[in-house]
Amino acid sequence: MTAFRVGLSGDFFRTDGSPCFPEFDLTRLRERTGLELVILDPDARITAAQTADLDALILLLPKVTEESFHRNGRLAVIARFGVGYDNVDVAACSARDVALAITPDGVRRPVAVSILTLLLALTGKLLLKDVLARRGPEGWAEKTRHNGVGLVGRTLGSLGIGNIGAELFRLARPLDMRFVAHDPYADAGLAAELGVELIGLEDLFRRADVLCINCPLNERTRYIVNAERLALMKPSAYLINTARGPIIDQSALIDTLRARRIAGAGLDVLEQEPPRADDPVLALDNVIVTPHALCWTDQLFAGNGASDVRAVLRVMAGEVPDGIVNGEVRERPGWRAKLAAYRRRFAGDLM
Is the pTM here over 0.85, yes or no? Predict the structure, then answer.
């Protein structure tokens, strides 16, 4: 019987072969009878030659395009390590009868905590006060000029109230802020349960004292935060983005920050990653920048890894995994045939 072959993109490992994320526990895959685990060569793009003999691919950062799928059609699932999937051609996955699964359970709390970290650092002027403290008596003498912003009664806004946006509001409850959000796909019942007022897009920019970006990057959301909408924000407001850089027109944001038309920003993501050393956003003193890694914790990697392992083993068992992005694949005869074949070959309870 041919083994169920699972490939890991090469960027899960360093050049010396050691794992980048030791918390990603591969034990269940390595010990599963009938399953073979293979490490792909590191590359910026997954190739058809790499997927030719794979049933499943666990993917970190390489791009998956239409050319990534071998014509033999063997691949059945791509398990993305995280919730962003702008590096994957979703339509091509569906056309090739491949399910794309992401890991909402793994990222929900770590990303929400990272947003809260930026919120508290910005409103508390943490970086500035660190600089003052390191200047000794001269700096300490200036501390009364740099009071932070109290949060009670202020308005926390979110562009998106899905997996991460909802968790942010849960964590922020003790802060006694007002909650507003814009999301055309919002669950009104969930919003009511969380105490979130659903409002229009422009209204969100006008009302939020802290505005957080919690939506995916796609053609509808690219540059949704533009010069016109930034101009609607209060001069005292803060903008936080931990989602994807191109959701914000970064040039417009830089102009806004330079002119002090908003109080500041917290950016874990940028339009170009990594940025050039002379990127003007890095020279601003009213922005906190982190390298698309603020949520990277031992628990994040353990959670993402566990979700990907579950997805792969469900497909091996001929079952539908959680977290499927391209839901239409469920009804495609080709994908259903793959699941049926796995059920026949790998009988037994894998979970």
Answer: yes
Query: Is 344 one of the catalytic residues?
Result: no
Shared domain for 10 and 86, answered yes or no, is yes
Active site includes 244?
yes
Residue of 74, 244, 310, 314 marked active site:
244
Strand (E) positions, the chain?
A: 4-8, 35-39, 56-59, 77-80, 99-101, 155-159, 178-182, 196-198, 210-213, 238-241, 264-267, 287-289
Which is it for strands 56-59 and 77-80: parallel, antiparallel or unpaired? parallel
C-alpha 239/C-alpha 262 separation (Å) is 8
Show the tokens assigned to 351.
């979970």
Query: Is residue 292 flagged as an active site residue?
Result: yes
- Same domain for 226 and 337? no
pLDDT of residue 351: 45
Catalytic residue among 142, 202, 228, 273: 273
Number of domains into which the chain is organized: 2
Evaluate whether residue 159 is within a structural domain.
yes
* Contact (Cβ atoms closer than 8 angstroms) between residue 100 and residue 125: no
- Examine the domain organization and report whether 81 and 93 are in the same domain: yes
Tell me the angle at which helices 126-134 and 104-123 cross, rounded to the nearest 10 degrees.
Answer: 50
Same domain (yes/no): 192, 210: yes
Of the residues 28, 292, 332, 343, only one is catalytic, namely 292
Domain's final residue, options 272, 289, 306: 289
* % of residues, the chain, pLDDT over 90: 96
For residues 138-167, average pLDDT: 96
Asked if 231 and 252 touch (Cβ cutoff 8 Å), the reply is no
Name the residue range of residue 326's domain.
Answer: 4-105+297-345
Is residue 319 in a domain? yes
Distance CA 329, CA 95 (A): 8
Distance CA 316, CA 126 (A): 49
